[in-house]
Amino acid sequence: MKQILVVMAFLVTIIECPAQIVINEPDLVINHEAYFGERVLLGAAHFTPDGNVITCAGTSVLIWDVETGQVISEIEHGYFFRAQTAWVLPDKQRVLSVGSVNESGAHYGIIYIERIDSGDELLEKYIDSNEMVLLSPDGNYFVTGIDDSIRIWSTAPGAEDPILSVSGSIWGTLAFISNRKAIIGTKIYDLKTGELTGGFPWLDPSLFYAESFSADMRIYSSGDGIFAFPSVKRLSSTYAGSRLLESNGIMLTKNNDNDVEIWDVGRFEMLGKIDIETDGWLFDYDYYMDSGKLLILTNVDEYPDAIAVWDASDAIALFEPVQELEVLQSDYSVEEVAVLPPGRWIESNPILAGADGGVLAAIPEIDGAGTRIVWKVNGQEIDIAKAAPFAPVLDMTPAGPDSVFLTVAAENFQARVYRLTGSFRPAAVTGWLQH
Predict the structure, then answer these.
(1) Beta strands of 282-388 (E only): which ranges?
(2) Distance of alpha carbon 387 from alpha carbon 369, whole angstroms
């Protein structure tokens, strides 16, 4: 990060400024007004998983080639239908579109699956106009639902009936946690079989609300912020349009200054900003990232009937890996020694007695920014390590004359055991921190 020296009177302060990537011009502008010859209403736009194609919903569903900026296919549904969102399915031969019809006072939703080359209709399902529709990360399943009814569908050719229907009082969360599993309320369902495979009975379904999970299930986003899971500890407040990237805790989020911020939510730190130089206001966006390439897809006030693709690949250099356990003192070391199977892990924050009347303590930060591993002796506190916010300390056990086993929460409800070696000479567990 760049450092700026600020001098006020006799006060000298070093301010850490996040790195900033400036993008002056989009790589591609797809102008729908120029294509149609008139103003159009645009819905959501999405990259395909390979980043080569953009599907744009609206008055018609348009499928664009990213490299050439040319239309691959246009699918029309009639004057009264408007698509809110659309996705190209994994076989790249079909498109799933979701929209609504408002005709002669009737208002309802429709889901279509159609061939891209001919527009031939393969599936038509009527839904409530208020139903949420989500596509799984691999495009093989989609979920539809409102407050009292959730259905899971397959996108496989010929599949017409839902795999699973869940009825009753369903609260809050409808989100994918992998290509095969989804959370509905506080329960986990297998998308292929429709079976209930697990859940989180200790969570209040009326208070728990998640929109998207990181791949390792340690972090989730909602309209209220970014949280650790399953501790539901707030990591940061969020702005509109947050996107969690990968399983390493990197997050993109748009701020009120029209910048896209890059956050390492594990370290509670902003790594940098992507400053997109436009006079307009950035709305909802999508991204594609792979093999050193990062593309950001936006619709912009400056181009009222267009979407723009911005190459932000230079920002990938700002991404840093998140460490579950970070050593802060040079005379200490840490190594991973075991991975424990999934279980319901409870944060305990133990204290170990050590040499010279000292104690080793795991102390959670008040602001939720992680857990300090502190050596307390002779009235001094020495921070020797820190666990990330999404990896709370579960247990500490003596491992030898100068080492201790630290157990921390890990991805997919597993736990990792680390050997922390130093000069504290732990003796025995003496108690538990109350917090």
Answers:
(1) 282-290, 293-300, 303-311, 325-327, 333-340, 350-353, 359-364, 371-377, 380-387
(2) 9
Question: Which among 405, 404, 361 is positioned nearest to 380, based on CA atoms?
Answer: 361
Q: Which residue has the tokens 């700026």?
A: 4
Question: If you ran DSSP here, which 8-state letter would residue 370 be given?
Answer: -
Q: Is 132 left (phi over 0), alpha (psi -120 to 50) or beta?
A: beta
Residue that has been written with the tokens 């992680």 in this structure: 370
Q: Taking the complete model, does pTM exceed 0.70, yes or no? A: no
The encoded tokens of residue 418 equal 């680390």
R_g over Cα of the chain = 25
The answer to whether 308 touches 295, Cβ cutoff 8 Å, is no
d(CA 99, CA 57): 9
CA end-to-end span of the chain:
35
Q: Hey, what's the torsion of the CAs at 184, 189, 193, 194, to 10 degrees?
A: -40
Instruction: State the Cα angle at 122 between 117 and 128, rounded to 5°.
Output: 120
Task: Give the model's pLDDT for residue 10.
Answer: 33
- Tens of pLDDT along 343-382? 655 556 577 777 667 888 888 876 566 788 888 888 888 8
